[in-house]
Amino acid sequence: MAERATAVAGAKTRPRRGGAPSFRVLIHRTVVYLLLIGVAILVIVPLMWAFSASFTPNEKVFAYAFPFTWRALFPVDFTLEGYKELFTRREGLFGRAVVNTLILSFSTVLLSGSASAMAGFAFARFEFRGRSLLFTLVLLTFMIPGPLTTIPLYILVSRLGWINTWQALILPGLANSLVIFVFRQFFAEISQDYLDAARVDGASWLRVLTSVVLPMSKPVLVTASLLLFLGQWNNFFWPLLVAPDPEFRVVQVAVSYAYEEYTTQWDLLLAGSTFAALIPILLVLPFQRYYVSGLVGGLRE
Amino acid sequence: MKRAERWIPYVLLLPALILLLVFYILPALAGFGEALYTSNLSRTNRAFVGFGNFAHILKDPTFWKSLRVTVVFSLVVNPLQTALALALAVLVNQRVRGIAVFRSIFLFPVVISLNITSTVWGLLLHQGGLVNGILVNLGLPRQPFLRSPGQALWTIIGIISWVGVSYWMMFFLAGLQGVPQAVYEAAAIDGASAWQIFTRVTLPLLRRVIAFVLVADTIINLFLFAPVWILTRGGPQLSTNLLMYDAYRRGVVWGDLGSMAAMVIVLLFITSAAVAMEFFVLRGDRE
């Protein structure tokens, strides 16, 4: 992470070579920008349309999209009706889903974050019998595709009678080998001197972990929290399987049902989608570097 | 004192290891067992059928149709996403002003969930949606996209690539940033063209990342579910009935958990075969 920071800073402060850029450099730069803008349009236009249409009266959702005019990309007939309706209809079912998802996401950050941090610390800083064996085990789970375990897990959870329960919704998502890797990587880079100094002062390992290591671990805590929070906020297949009841419905499942149930209420559907998409975008944008470094963290292992 | 501390790492590891064991490793193993039983959700009807579930699936023409769909899908989507992601990473790795803004924009598809993406694209590709609006503006005929047996699978490939290309680009970009600038400068001084630098310097250095992306992408896409569930439910005429969706339908919709488990095992074999093939191909051109 630190390497990347200096690389970026290096690029900015790099002294310019004197003189006007050559013709070839200009051509190169133009092509690069044209391609970048082309791809950016492909990414941005669908999102701008969805965003604008979510603030548009239902009968006008497609009005400017077909045939296409620039008005399709801006909320020119601004209204909050879609959102109002979304949060009030069927006794606030969507609001309930938002609360459910927040409970799910925050408890995952807290519980899985703690368990993974402890495991990451053990792998990074202790020599113990069976370490490489246990670490191989963790690596192995990283290589088992999640969906492969989903169905046997679903069968297990059904047999336990856990369908539509909090434990079914939360517990399986707590096992996260990527987050363990991310913590291990970070803790391995902490200088041994800090730990030794605290140990000489007579602090217990628990104290070392909570009062020495954690305060200097903000970057990795941000990374892990984002990975875990977004993982649950965006989780769809598992909640669809184990929590189909309205009482336990999460945002992603609620929107997916809306796609089927309200095939004429586009504004509602788009308001739900925009809401579900905006949360992760707003959370990640300020912490991009932390998020991406975590995402690609598995690459190192 | 040292002696008393021996147990500390085990205590620290315990919660995480229990979670991984119970929710990853045991279910993965249990999946093999489940495939040998015929069962629905009540325990009483459970009976050992050996390979009966597999025989049942293999006799089902729907399975073979789904398998064909899945093979075509995989052969197209994985190389496509990997190649485009690499190209985009090279583009985003250029040191031009404002590149940070573009990097932020390309992160959007990654953080939005696949089913929201599917929902929004479903509306964009609607008969009277924005994509057809643009086609009409250009004087082209409207397209049915997801409603046509001939176009639905390709449309889904397009939609998931909107996500996949950005996602895997992050990995390639991380790989590219690990290559010291001096390597490129040295190649440029030796008079190598941009294309030569790419094929002779960048590609060999990224070999491990390419292998990782191709394999991980293959696995993820073989287990693709959300877009099919939301957009087509396997149709029209089973043209998008990917195996993962077929497994879901058998187990959750029809209550045939044994067949569902057997389907997942079949998927696992296909995954292993595909991954082995990719390693073989990537290793083959090392010489």
Explained architecture:
Chain A has helices at 2-13, 23-54, 81-125, 131-143, 146-159, 166-170, 177-188, 192-200, 205-213, 218-233, 237-242, 251-261, 266-284, 288-295. In chain A, helix 3 packs across helix 10, helix 3 (81-125) runs parallel beside helix 13 (266-284) and helix 12 packs antiparallel against helix 13 (266-284). Chain A contains 14 helices and no strands. Chain A is globular. Helices cover 70% and strands 0% of the residues of chain A. Chain A is mainly alpha-helical and 301 residues long. The longest helix of chain A has 45 residues, at 81-125. Chain A has two domains: 21-79, no CATH class; 81-300, MetI-like fold. Chain B is mainly α. Chain B has a single domain (57-284), classed as MetI-like fold (Orthogonal Bundle). Chain B is 72% helix and 1% strand. Chain B has 13 helices and two strands. A two-stranded antiparallel ribbon of chain B has the order 1-2. In chain B, a hairpin with an 8-residue loop joins strand 1 (37-38) and strand 2. In chain B, helix 3 (61-92) packs parallel to helix 7 (152-177) and helix 10 (207-222) runs antiparallel to helix 13. Classes of the chains: A mainly alpha (301), B mainly alpha (287).
Helix percent of chain B reads: over 70%
Total count of helical runs of at least 4 residues of chain A: 14
Sketch the topology of chain B as an H/E string, one letter per element: HEEHHHHHHHHHHHH
Given the C-alpha coordinates, what overall shape of chain B results?
Answer: globular
CATH superfamily of chain B: MetI-like
Query: Low-confidence runs of chain A (pLDDT<50, min 5 residues)?
Result: 1-16
For the biggest β-sheet of chain B, the strand order reads: 1-2
Q: Tell me the major beta sheet of chain A.
A: none
* Estimated helix fraction of chain A: over 70%
Q: What is the subunit arrangement here?
A: heterodimer
Query: DSSP strand (E) fraction of chain A?
Result: under 5%
- CATH class designation of chain B: Mainly Alpha
Average pLDDT rating of chain B: 86
Shape of chain A: globular
Rg of chain B, Å, rounded: 23 Å
Going by helix content, strand content and strand pairing, the class of chain A is mainly alpha
The fourth-level CATH homologous superfamily of the largest domain in chain A is MetI-like
Count the domains of chain B. Answer: 1
